């Protein structure tokens, strides 16, 4: 299979902008996480007040990122206007500063309906106590009870990485077209990583701003959350990949992490194979054993060694996404054991 190629092998230095196409600039913001950076883009735009730049994704809400934005606005963008902020999805590395930027610059926020209201909900979630639904989610999975206290604090912490979102937004919908400085960008829907991720495709120049939907090396987290325990996120994710296969192979993909690349079809096939392998692994496991979600997670991610509670929760959500896929398609049967945990067995 063809390999991916990377036309811009070096990321922009902190606080600097790199042109990746005419009217499309790339910048990076640091993240205090395992994944240590996010790619943001600026796209040339024009509104009733004249030309300017549309900011695509914002970085996390912390002092370092705010200072870098100030530096960029006063440096490489000095004297230029910002026309708006567009967030591909609600995650804090993408939308953390949406509120701060739109407030400071007095510009609109563009987001899909689902992502905008999820952002507002998350920003307002400062509750440390886990609800009975959340406790049931972890209990059904067989998650060790002694880690639950840590999780409540971790879940509440997410709201601190987000500046207060604006009270109004402009809605993005899949299929809609945005004209930015004369270039037409088609909006595509990505599901599975989040509910209503937006990708922007310029069909004429073959450029795709892909957010977290098509990362070149790492695989996006496709994880069932306690707020929707029966979610069929792998079904959603694979469905999105199948739709994105309609885009041309020579597309320049601008991802939110790692480097811009060519090789969209290759990458989609790699991602399909990755999830196919996870599904096969779980099919085999549920033939020989009847694992709980926690046990299946330990097996599926054995190569990662011992995980911290937060990573364990994400891994568990990812494992459950694959189990839900097989269960909801009738391949696995699910029963509750005497301790209140779900167990999964192959039907065939
Ligand atoms: Zn994300």
What's the arrangement of secondary structure elements?
Elements: E1 18-21, E2 24-30, E3 37-47, E4 50-56, H1 63-74, E5 82-86, H2 92-95, H3 98-105, E6 109-112, H4 113-124, H5 132-141, H6 148-157, E7 170-172, E8 177-180, E9 183-190, E10 197-202, E11 207-211, H7 233-244, E12 252-255, E13 261-262, H8 264-288, H9 293-300, H10 309-328, E14 332-336, E15 342-346
Parallel strand pairs: 4-5, 5-6, 6-7, 11-12
Antiparallel strand pairs: 1-2, 2-3, 3-4, 8-9, 9-10, 10-11, 12-13, 14-15
Helix pairs in contact: 7-8, 8-10, 9-10
Structural description of this entry:
The protein is of the alpha/beta class and 348 residues long. It has one domain: 4-Layer Sandwich (Metallo-beta-lactamase, Chain A), CATH 3.60.15. The chain has helices at residues 63-74, 92-95, 98-105, 113-124, 132-141, 148-157, 233-244, 264-288, 293-300, 309-328; strands spanning 18-21, 24-30, 37-47, 50-56, 82-86, 109-112, 170-172, 177-180, 183-190, 197-202, 207-211, 252-255, 261-262, 332-336, 342-346. A seven-stranded mixed β-sheet has the order 1-2-3-4-5-6-7. The protein has a six-stranded mixed β-sheet with strand order 8-9-10-11-12-13. Strands 14-15 form a two-stranded antiparallel ribbon. Strand 12 (252-255) and strand 13 form a beta hairpin. Helix 8 (264-288) packs across helix 10 and helix 9 crosses helix 10 (309-328). The longest helix has 25 residues, at 264-288. It is globular. It binds zinc ion. Zinc ion is lined by residues 89, 91, 193, 212.
**Shape category:** globular
Number of helices: 10
Order of helices and strands: EEEEHEHHEHHHEEEEEHEEHHHEE
Helix content: 25-40%
The largest sheet has its strands arranged as 1-2-3-4-5-6-7
CATH hierarchy: architecture: 4-Layer Sandwich
Task: Write out the distinct hetero groups bound to the structure.
Answer: zinc ion
Mean pLDDT: 94
Cα Rg: 21 Å
Approximate strand percentage: 15-25%
The class by helix and strand makeup works out as alpha/beta
**Separation of the first and last Cα atoms:** 33 Å
Give the total of domains: 1
CATH topology: Metallo-beta-lactamase, Chain A
Question: How would you name the CATH homologous superfamily?
Answer: Ribonuclease Z/Hydroxyacylglutathione hydrolase-like
CATH class wording: Alpha Beta
How is the main sheet built? Answer: 7 strands, mixed
Number of strands: 15
């Amino acid at each position: 299979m063809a390999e991916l190629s990377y036309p811009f092998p070096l990321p922009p230095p902190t606080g600097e902008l790199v042109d990746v196409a005419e009217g499309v600039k790339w910048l990076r913001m640091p993240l205090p996480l395992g994944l240590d950076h996010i790619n943001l883009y600026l796209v040339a735009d024009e509104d009733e007040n004249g030309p300017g730049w549309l900011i695509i994704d914002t970085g996390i809400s912390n002092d370092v990122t705010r200072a870098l934005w100030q530096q960029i606005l006063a440096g490489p963008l000095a004297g230029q206007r910002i026309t708006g902020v567009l967030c591909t999805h609600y995650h804090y590395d993408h939308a953390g500063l949406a509120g701060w930027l739109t407030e400071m610059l007095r510009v609109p926020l563009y987001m899909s309906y689902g992502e905008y209201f999820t952002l507002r909900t998350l920003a307002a979630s400062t509750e440390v106590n886990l609800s009975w639904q959340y406790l049931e989610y972890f209990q059904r999975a067989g998650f060790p009870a002694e880690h639950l206290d840590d999780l409540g604090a971790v879940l509440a912490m997410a709201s601190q990485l987000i500046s207060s979102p604006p009270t109004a937004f402009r809605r993005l919908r899949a299929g809609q077209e945005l004209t930015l400085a004369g270039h037409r960008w088609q909006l595509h829907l990505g599901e599975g990583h989040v509910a209503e991720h937006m990708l922007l495709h310029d069909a004429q120049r073959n450029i795709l701003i892909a957010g977290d939907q098509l990362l070149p090396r790492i695989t996006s987290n496709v994880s069932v959350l306690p707020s929707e325990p029966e979610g069929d996120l792998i079904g959603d994710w694979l469905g999105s990949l199948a739709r994105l296969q309609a885009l041309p192979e020579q597309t320049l993909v601008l991802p939110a992490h790692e480097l811009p690349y060519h090789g969209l079809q290759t990458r989609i096939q790699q991602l399909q194979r990755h999830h196919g392998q996870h599904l096969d692994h779980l099919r085999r496991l549920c033939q020989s054993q009847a694992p709980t979600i926690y046990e299946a997670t330990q097996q599926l991610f054995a190569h990662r060694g011992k995980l911290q509670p937060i990573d364990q929760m994400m891994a568990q959500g990812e494992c459950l996404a694959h189990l839900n896929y097989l269960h909801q398609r009738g391949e696995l049967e699910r029963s509750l054991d005497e301790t209140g945990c779900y167990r999964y067995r192959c039907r065939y």
